[in-house]
Write a sequence for this structure.
């Protein structure tokens, strides 16, 4: 995913996953076989009360260049479009803003904090709501763009990321200001999978393995 002299822009939302990704990549620079640099980008969706100063302080402590991208995503999604299911549009707009800003900063890779559980949840959501077999790719080459999207934590389980943050108490996730937080279809799928995991231990691992065996969206054994 990371090549010699890459500038890796981390999509830093302030959630647990992006905090783990940023700090792990910074640590990885010390032993990775080729040199690479890290910067961080945050999309300001425009929710009232947003405060990214803790992220700025974290990036300063890590020696990482940090930028906040001002947008009107919240206004467009909730006030203008009045989306009944706003997550999909919001996600696409955030990613577009990140890719554009990453290019401007000279980055060659945009790193996102999706993990093992996200892969499985997205697969189930696509199957259930769109009737297709698919999830996001480990590496996405964007046509006509200088930046590729990478997801370095796709083999990391969410429980391990939570454990990592507990062992690093200085990494405090920012509270979500989105009115849809905890009330999304993804949360419903997460609860469904948790219940199936309780009844049939290993079900998420088997689904992930099936994605690999099927070669879906760039996954392979």
């Amino acid at each position: 995913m990371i090549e010699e002299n890459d500038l890796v822009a981390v999509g830093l939302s302030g959630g647990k996953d992006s905090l783990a990704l940023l700090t792990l990549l910074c640590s990885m620079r010390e032993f990775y076989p080729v040199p690479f640099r890290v910067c961080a980008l945050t999309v300001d969706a425009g929710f009232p009360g947003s405060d990214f100063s803790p992220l700025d302080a974290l990036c300063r402590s890590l020696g990482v260049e940090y930028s906040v991208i001002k947008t009107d995503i919240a206004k467009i999604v909730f006030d203008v479009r009045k989306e009944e299911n706003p997550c999909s549009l919001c996600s696409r707009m955030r990613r577009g803003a990140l890719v554009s800003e990453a290019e401007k900063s000279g980055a060659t890779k945009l790193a996102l904090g999706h993990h093992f559980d996200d892969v499985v949840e997205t697969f189930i959501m696509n199957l259930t709501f769109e009737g297709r077999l698919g999830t996001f790719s480990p590496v996405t080459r964007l046509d006509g763009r200088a930046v590729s999207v990478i997801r370095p934590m796709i083999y990391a389980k969410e429980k391990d990321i939570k454990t990592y943050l507990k062992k690093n108490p200085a990494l405090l996730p920012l509270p979500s200001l989105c009115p849809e937080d905890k009330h999304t279809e993804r949360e419903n799928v997460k609860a469904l999978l948790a219940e199936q995991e309780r009844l049939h231990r290993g079900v998420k691992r088997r689904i992930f393995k099936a994605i690999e065996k099927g070669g879906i969206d760039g996954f392979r054994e």
Summary: The longest strand covers residues 37-44. The chain is about 45% helix and 15% strand.
